[in-house]
Amino acid sequence: MATASLTAEYAKSGKAGCKGCGKSIDKGELRIGYVGKANFGATAWYHYDCLWADTDSLKSVDASKSAKVLVQNYDSLKGEDKKKLDKDLPKFCKEASTKASKAEPKPKSDLAAEYAPSAKSNCKGCSKPIGKSTLRVGFPGKANFGATAWYHYDCVWKESVLLAPIDTSQSLEETVDGFEKLKNEDQTKLSSDLKKNCKAAAEKEPPLPPKMAADYAKSDKSECKSCATKIAKNALRVGFTGKANFGAVAWYHVDCLKKCPQEYSKGIKADKPLEELVDGFDKLNKDDQKKVEKEVKALASPTGAPKRKSEGEESAKASPAKKGRK
Ligand SMILES: [Zn+2]
Ligand SMILES: [Zn+2]
Ligand SMILES: [Zn+2]
């Protein structure tokens, strides 16, 4: 794996800002940076102590190498600073990569809760600012660029469309990101309000059927989300609108559709006409309409697996549907 190159020196002027804390680095002060990571290939500089806080960048540093190898200019540093680096670099790199490996496989929680670190966020419900240190509750990934859409505690319960799909049988730690960091009284409050409001929301808002689309690929640039191979130009493809990055369609080969995640197909109503379920359905040719209809209806069937008719199809290696929550 490519490792990030670091460099260290005593600041030649007081002009450079620290990428960590944003404050300037004094002339003569030891600064350390990532070569080529600032604009125009410049070095992204940090105060010595601030470097270690940026674990996102730090995890790309190969901690198995010594500071002498990793840090350009190491030899020109003062002895005491070399010693500091020898000790701190492997220690913090290891911490950063442990943190990263722990953080990555974690699926996105349905909700997040925290005390607002600043007064800069506005409530998505009432649009008024959320005061600093106020308890706020949000939906991860529901704001622009995958950010969390934050709400005042009392405002969040009005979002029944977003609350309805939340599975309240899971532990609160799993459902709510940051739950364990809340004060005890807020944990209790949140726990009971969440159960109550999600239940009410689910009764009020039946799960929305997913938006689907079908067409003939306009180029060979799209990739099937299931088999990860390119979808040929003009090939029939079926997908879920809004499930790919930036609200794009997550496309599948029509034969791969059955392998889509269950959360995508949840809510498909088999009794709905295909024209309503699948955008562009009416523009497909008759044979392809049949294919799409069969696969989409199969997703809507209670087992989640296509019902096979004796049509001499290839025997797909689809694993038996993993369902059966009691
Ligand atoms: Zn700093
Ligand atoms: Zn509000
Ligand atoms: Zn495929």
Automatic annotation (TrEMBL):
Keywords: Metal-binding, Nucleus, Zinc, Zinc-finger. Residues 283-297 have a biased composition (Basic and acidic residues). Pfam families: zf-PARP. One of its GO terms (cellular component) is nucleus. InterPro entries: Znf_PARP, Znf_PARP_sf. Transmembrane segments: none annotated. Residues 283-326 are annotated as: Disordered. GO terms for biological process: DNA repair. It is found in: Nucleus. Its main location: nucleus. PROSITE patterns: ZF_PARP_2. The keyword NADP does not apply. One of its GO terms (molecular function) is zinc ion binding. Residues 6-90, 111-194, 212-300 form the PARP-type domain. Gene3D superfamilies: Zinc finger, PARP-type. This is Poly [ADP-ribose] polymerase 1. It comes from Magallana gigas (Pacific oyster). The lineage of its organism: Eukaryota, Metazoa, Spiralia, Lophotrochozoa, Mollusca.
